[in-house]
Design a protein that fits this description.
binds calcium ion, 2 domains, four-stranded antiparallel beta sheet
Length: 232
């Protein structure tokens, strides 16, 4: 018996929804769908999904609001936003609200499947190790994504923990393109994608640094990338 990964697709355009549904069923997913923002949110909150594909323009409630409402309840829910290709503002907005990833329309179906599978692999991989200890002052429970930073409780997203765990293991400056390929599963990152990394790094600095404007732990190495300064 195999357990199929559960995918929720919230998309109002019938043709796209049908195409995505067929695609992911073909790839072995258990697919549910909604064509309305509010109904999509209800489904997201009432079911247990391994990943949610979320369109931006939706009737009754837009994708950003849906994402925001999901995040109020669940930090670990994986969400990929389906955005319009031209709209950098949409992408930045979605990521700021807590989407793990975005894919721009019109998208390549292979790329979309790869992104979803990367998320599943990462979340599965994470379950093997229960806590991430960066130093004597910072440790994070990888299952419920809550951490203790300098004696205070701080909540993280799955993606943030993945980034910290990767940087911690590498113990060297890691470029944005490496992070995009290892953490997000992107094969050919573009300029907007690198902003994705920067936004996540900025959020992480706010969570783990005593002064996020002068980071001591999560440092930028010009021309090389980001390094977590906790191993030595
Ligand atoms: Ca739409």
């Amino acid at each position: 018996m195999t357990i199929k990964p559960k995918l929720l697709i919230i998309e109002d355009e019938a043709a796209i929804l049908r195409g995505l549904t067929d695609l992911f069923i073909f790839h072995g997913f258990d697919v549910s769908s909604e064509q309305d923002g509010l109904k999509g949110l209800e489904a997201a909150l009432s079911g247990k999904y391994d990943c949610i594909l979320l369109d931006v323009m939706l009737p009754s409630m837009d994708g950003f609001s849906v994402c925001n409402e999901i995040r109020k309840v669940s930090r670990e829910q994986s969400i990929i936003m389906l955005t319009a290709k031209s709209s950098e503002a949409d992408i930045i907005n979605g990521l700021t609200l807590g989407a793990d990833d975005y894919i721009a329309k019109p998208f390549s179906v292979q790329e979309l499947v790869l992104r979803v599978k990367t998320i599943l692999r990462r979340t599965g991989w994470d379950e093997e190790r229960e806590s991430l200890t960066l130093n004597e002052n910072i440790s994070i429970d990888k299952n419920n994504l809550s951490g203790i930073v300098n004696g205070k409780e701080v909540v993280f997203t799955r993606r943030e923990v993945d980034i910290l765990a990767y940087l911690h293991r590498q113990n060297r400056p890691v470029s944005r393109s490496e992070l995009l390929s290892e953490i997000w599963g992107y094969s050919q990152p573009n300029l907007i994608d690198t902003r994705t990394v920067d936004i996540h790094i900025a959020k992480l600095r706010k969570k783990i640094e005593s002064n996020s404007k002068a980071p001591k732990l999560l440092q930028t190495f010009r021309g090389e990338g980001y390094k977590l300064m906790v191993n030595s």
